[in-house]
Amino acid sequence: MGSFCIAPFGLWSRIEPMKIRRVVAPFLSMAFATFVGSAADMRPNILFIMSDDHAAHAISAYGSRVNQTPNIDRLAREGVRFNNCFAANSICSPSRATILTGKYSHLNGVPTFNRFDGSQWTVAKALQAAGYHTGMLGKWHLGSDPTGFDEWTILPGQGAYHDPAFLDRNGRRVVRGYVTDIITDLAIDFLKNRPADKPFFLMCHHKAPHRSWEPDEKHRTAFAGKHIPEPTTLRDDYTGRTDAIRECTQTVFKDLTRRDLKLQPPPELTGPARDKWLNEKPTEVEVRVESKSQKLSGDALNAWKYQRYMQDYLACIQSVDDNVGRLLDFLDSRGLAKNTIVIYTSDQGFFLGDHGLYDKRFMYEESIKMPFLVRWPGTIKPGIEENRLAINPDFAPTFLEIAGQAAPVGVQGRSLVPLLKGEGTPDWRTSFYYRYYHDPGDHNTRAHYGVRTSTQKLIYFWKKNQWEMYDLTNDPQELRNIYGDAAQGAAVEKLKTELYRLKKELRDDDQYAIEQPPAGVDGQPAPRK
Ligand SMILES: [Ca+2]
Fold it and tell me: What is the three-class DSSP state of 316?
């Protein structure tokens, strides 16, 4: 399909968003047929950079206490920082499926780590049909081949940090180097070789900083001796909380393995014996301090484990930050920055020792909060903050509106374009629904659903029939479960009403409450066509 021109983008930006949907979108198909082959399409490009498990509180623009991310910060300085953007199901594959479809897990069919049905509607297909040149590079983690992309090169499953294999339409190839650098190289190649007469939509998905947190040598060395401040809730004793947090195996002190801690197995161990050694969770560790061997256990070992975990996690992020800088520089050097919307996000948040945990899954703030930074020169005022509630089902309708397209029936999110433009939205959501299914999953994390408003949170662990409630204004760290407080009776009832209203409105009929679909995104990639 050739290029087309309907109106210069200046006109798009002057038309009210709803009018674009009602008036202009139906006109698009007509215009598309009429003007095929005419002047260049000036709709903005979309560069969507998403990392994996990068918590907002490991970005200095979000006030990180543990690292500095000058390149990612540039997007906050030159664009908008969303302070309340959340994943609706805080694990990798479900977040990705939701971003592509604008739908919750129970409707897009990916509640856990199961294969995505690529025959369904996705925003990539819609943008491709609307004349965008579409690309997907990096971590995909949805089992099936990408659909709706003119170009795709993906990591199989989780992918590898060093000398990773990639899959594309031609099969599998190994690329020498470090994964974050390579994905950025692929993105730069995509930008260099794209058709000049079309706007582009590029999903650049980093693997980092996902477990097993393997930095490149440069950043590993830079962080090796660094002391990382501990979070205040690292030694949370879970008083007043339900069983779920006590039962999970995602704690820094008890559950990091020798592999996670990068301990070296004895040289005589090989094969399964070596793997067994690496997968054990050590209660005593021998380290070298100033060339002397020292045995660590108890509190000293706990503190050491936190440092080891965070040093590698943050070193992986530093490479992501460098590479975001490379991409922004490339846009500048090619004169692309002005008409390219750049988004930086992560598929969900991560516990950085908060509540003593690593990983995500739980509906607590550190896990569900996504960094969401957007630069759109000429439209977004530089350096602003946005506090309205955004969720990852909103991303697809946002991309569509940017491209002048209406969201189809069934998309559950709302376009964030009015928020990006700083417009008032009197009917914006005041709460959102969350649901996590993967139980027992990789970390024995109990399934739950819940509702979060701007000031409160209610969580229901349905397999345990246990509840938690938090006052986010007076207890932002979520240390005091007030569900059972007599004084909260009316507030609990109000939140429950809202929870079940949302559940019904979103057509969550407990489709995956008991049985989860079989795993299908890790290990061997899906058979090639
Ligand atoms: Ca993830």
Answer: helix
